[in-house]
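#struct-pred

JT: dropping the chains for the assembly here, can someone run the whole complex?
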Amino acid sequence: MKKVKVGIIGTGNIGTDLLIKIQRSEFLECGIFAGKNKESKGIKKALSLGVKVSFDSIKAIEKDPNCCDIVFDATSAKVHLYNAPILKKLKKYTIDLTPSQVGKMCVPAINLDECLNLNNVNLITCGGQATIPVIFAIMKVHPETEYIEIVASISSKSAGSGTRVNIDEFTQTTRDAIVQFTGVKKVKAIIVLNPAEPPVLMHNTIYAKIEKPNIAKLQFEIMEMAKKIQKYVPGYKIKLGPVAENERVTTMIEVVGLGDFLPKYSGNLDIITCAAVNVAEEYAKKKIFKKEK
Amino acid sequence: MDKIIFFDSTLRDGSHAVSHKIAASEIKNYCRKIDDAGLHTVIVGHGNGLGASSLQVGLSALTDDEMLKTAKKELKKTKLGAFLIPGFGTIKDDINPAIDNGVDLFCVAIHCTEADVTRQHIEYVRKKGKDAYGILMMYHMAPKERLLEEALKMQSYGAIGVVLMDSAGASTSQMVSETVRFLSDNLDIKVGFHGHNNLGLAVSNSLIAIQSGAVIIDGTLRGFGAGAGNCQLEVLAGLLSKLKIETGLDLYKMMDVSDDVVSKMMKLPQEITSVSLISGLAGVFSGFANNVKKTAVRFGVDPRDIFMELGRRKMVAGQEDFIVDVAMYLANKKGSEEESYDIESLL
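RK: done, full complex below.
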């Protein structure tokens, strides 16, 4: 079986974590690891793995379009706005890990199939990846839920400069994505950075305002959803709940990273790279299967 | 010496003390009567600021719009201020409407080591021609060199001043004098101090801050505020007049508003309870007090143990969800012999 080639643009933490995850994949291999920063740790890592690198960013793919079929964009929202039309023209299946909001928002546990037929998908935010599936499960049991609130706590060390400088976009993108995926009318998203040492694990709390919650049914649906997510994010765990206190139903989620390039406390980054690799593998399987048929 | 300016947080920090249930009539009455007391700014809103009404921290009785509009009508001489923590509120949803409602001054607040997340908001507020101050919360959790680094970032974003918040009331006098002196010696912008009274030092620490170079004091009338309460502004005003430090404050007016208006807004007298004392010693955000007390009852654990454990875990402002997490951990520890311990049995 021939593996499908991927290109990674962006050689920072996210790009390098993707690179390491892809080394383990049965269906993917890295054709090009392209960035701009010659000094980045990621470049050294890629060279040590014998992966082809470039400092020409997107131009490396333009110059040699056969180097990959799938492209991960792990640059920034601004750079992706420039890259997206080029990748579309080159007919590359694009998985965007920036908050650019160019492509269709994708949560593999919910809308993977649909996303495999598009040419550009976006992975929202870590808070979105962690909480949307559980809210989806809650809405399945209680479609009358009027208000949802999520609190995502992440360790300061795992919040990169992109998240920090764009915290407003992060908060609003998460909220908009929850509304879009689950249809709940009113949503609030809160993001808290915690600088404790050793760093805290990624933690998400979901509050739902439900008049008469059916806890047993909620528990079942949430656990079923968690199992789906655990297939591609092994460190995903329902830490508490759902529990009801008056009309407030609380569920807590913890995400422990795989510890590939990023430390285990960076569950917030791991959940995005895991989801991205999952989408790419499913796309690759479809492609391989089609050829073999 | 620069003239000292006073930020009055009675209608913001006091919101914590009454679970964010301040009435419109109270805001109106308070603002009308305090307007010519010589204060620089009256800050109004939910205890955690714009956009913070939530199941996490507590739901406000009124919307931010209602609170700000009500206050703005009454404030003729005093600036109207709003508080905002990035991650809770955003420019689009909260700062823009606040500007439309007549807010003159924004306090953009964040945990003391995370100043870079205030950049968007401080720059935006300044661009809109409004005053922006940077607030470093829970300042006791970082050494002064780090605080300076963070304050310099806020200065570079365009903040007019930086206020250190002793959010947990965990400061000793020496911490205040050393930190405030170090910052005011090394910053071009104004330095301020916001004290809490968990260790009985809020007024004293505010005076020490002034003597160490602070020119902004943030406090509340009658000390009305989270946990053990804040620096009681009318007491500080009296103390400063005794020391012949010019403030421009009308002491009698402040006393009248404190007695006639604020005392009636309070549900309980502002005292240092054992739980608040422990919160100060543990170095945990004062605003957690009401939630901790409720959760302690719900899980049958000692609220003091919850505070100590939250302190050990270095929880910061906005992390109220960990109160339940900690209470459950303590309850489980207590009943660890029962293998099939079920949290729902506690509810």
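JT: nice. The two ends of chain B are 57 Å apart (CA to CA). Chain B has 14 helices and eight strands.
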